[in-house]
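User: Assemble these into one structure.

Assistant: Restating your components, then the assembled model:
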Amino acid sequence: MEKNRSKRGAKTLAKIHASWGSPKVLTQLDDIAPDFKNMVRDFAFGDIYSRPNLDLKSRQLATVAALAALNNSPLELKAHLHGALKLGWKKQELVEVLMQMSLYAGFPAAIHALLIAKEVFAENASINSHK
Amino acid sequence: MEKNRSKRGAKTLAKIHASWGSPKVLTQLDDIAPDFKNMVRDFAFGDIYSRPNLDLKSRQLATVAALAALNNSPLELKAHLHGALKLGWKKQELVEVLMQMSLYAGFPAAIHALLIAKEVFAENASINSHK
Amino acid sequence: MEKNRSKRGAKTLAKIHASWGSPKVLTQLDDIAPDFKNMVRDFAFGDIYSRPNLDLKSRQLATVAALAALNNSPLELKAHLHGALKLGWKKQELVEVLMQMSLYAGFPAAIHALLIAKEVFAENASINSHK
Amino acid sequence: MEKNRSKRGAKTLAKIHASWGSPKVLTQLDDIAPDFKNMVRDFAFGDIYSRPNLDLKSRQLATVAALAALNNSPLELKAHLHGALKLGWKKQELVEVLMQMSLYAGFPAAIHALLIAKEVFAENASINSHK
Amino acid sequence: MEKNRSKRGAKTLAKIHASWGSPKVLTQLDDIAPDFKNMVRDFAFGDIYSRPNLDLKSRQLATVAALAALNNSPLELKAHLHGALKLGWKKQELVEVLMQMSLYAGFPAAIHALLIAKEVFAENASINSHK
Amino acid sequence: MEKNRSKRGAKTLAKIHASWGSPKVLTQLDDIAPDFKNMVRDFAFGDIYSRPNLDLKSRQLATVAALAALNNSPLELKAHLHGALKLGWKKQELVEVLMQMSLYAGFPAAIHALLIAKEVFAENASINSHK
């Protein structure tokens, strides 16, 4: 069963993050907290993101909205914006969500998130132009 | 033009909130800050929620996720969960989003949001059974 | 010297809070953490609020703005809104500050603060009508 | 393996919370999100709190400090203060930790936490006097 | 009417920010979210900051206090500290407000804000010495 | 008496921070807010950390937990992780506390704290190897 959680987590994680950003965050935990890295895979991606009843694309929008509103996790917002593009959200749709966060978390939170999106879109264009 | 913002705002607001909860929050501002109540209609609903490029149903999911993660706006989360049901999200889909917020804002934030959802679902069932 | 801090703190505290609300918060600490209650008087009011270079009325505006933006201290916001009225801020000026906080902390924070202000203004009118 | 996580989680949870408060929070999830309730048991208590290298009493102090500083989870702080007493922390030690949080999260956060502790100590005295 | 909001917003914005910092933040939105940049001008500066009943200098103090307490918007705090100097607040008055925020948001928030103020004062001295 | 607060504060501060990090934060306040630097010494370390009823080692764990959960004070978390090592906490114990914070403040908060701990452990190893 444990093995299934890990397998399922790795599989779901790859659907979202097989691109820039997030692996770097998790890989840095390798020496200091390897068990925690595995917990992120097993719990966050194996238990939560892999659940039925809500598609992965909708889940990704929810995560982007939450991270933008919280305004304290730029590395994770960056990784999940890459994931959102990978799962089919259009750039303009993501810009709309980030603008909307100004209503609930203030203008600075929305501005910070838009500046991170700007970086992500530039990295994404650069990846695609080198394919 | 101003008139258009107000009209558009009132129209969009009615698509989300013509139900329990939120009007109460805004109506209480009538005597102390009537201009602010109008700004919520004009800016939040007329300028932001009415924009093209992202459908209202997706916008509502983003708001529910953000308010759950912020864990400091129970009245607004309640109103927007009612709005999310009205716009077609299923109860189980909303439960999934709220559970997922535990990853970014901790377990207490997710638990508080789920307890609010429980109230909303009960109110919603009661409304529907009286139709 | 210690004695001076306490005296100065008590004197400054009385300029702000000799009215509804805040004493209740501090008095409740009497049995569980009496030293902490004294620290609030000595440090917050004796060391900080009593400093020269900025008048008490301006300090009070800053506190009201911060507590509204933080959106997690309703008891203290209530007490300091009473204090702001006592120090000469007009109701409409305080409403303006609270509305402005929507820009930095989102609409729910501003709405919550305005609803607290509504209570404070009602309590204040009731006190004045009984004088 | 899964079964072990659940067993281990239930066992650790009982060491902390076999008393007032927290069960109530989790039991309320029974109908709306029963899987989430199980995840709290399995992940929070089975995976994290059950790990070696740090004793449960120290873990409990860390949780009380964090919940007091975050100032947005009164139900959980209440449950974990009960747990802290159960695990051997003295009332005065807990008061000290909560006072200290004023340095990192401001005076209102510390005051709110102390008022919750006051309730917990009263409930705890009442439980013990009825044994 | 719309045109008036924009004109009024641009005019008020220039009273606060015709100096270092903030334009940079807003200019960076030009390509990714030009409408949002205009909304900041129209709503934040045209609708809110331009309202009567509270003078711009007092509004600026409130913003500095809130951004310092929130401790998550260094770019905006920097821009608004420049604005506060431009509107006539003295350096020592601003230092007092930032110190006071330790009471409501903890010492780290106040220290971070003071370090940003230090940068702003140095930039401001450098601008003035080159006039 | 005042003198005693300062002496006691300096003495307690040296038990925690006579090492990397924190002095740098406080020393930078020398020119802009020297009184505030003294207040940190007198109030935080002289009044709070020096109190009896809770040992300094336990206090340090509480601070590390709170700063990790708040996820907005990296400089202070770094300084207090150095302090925690100095007071006898083992690296693995601190890793456990930081992992645990994921439950109350989300995974990003725990990951950020672990990456800061990684820097602290490397600096600490480097200091010890040069003794």
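Chain B has a mean pLDDT of 92.
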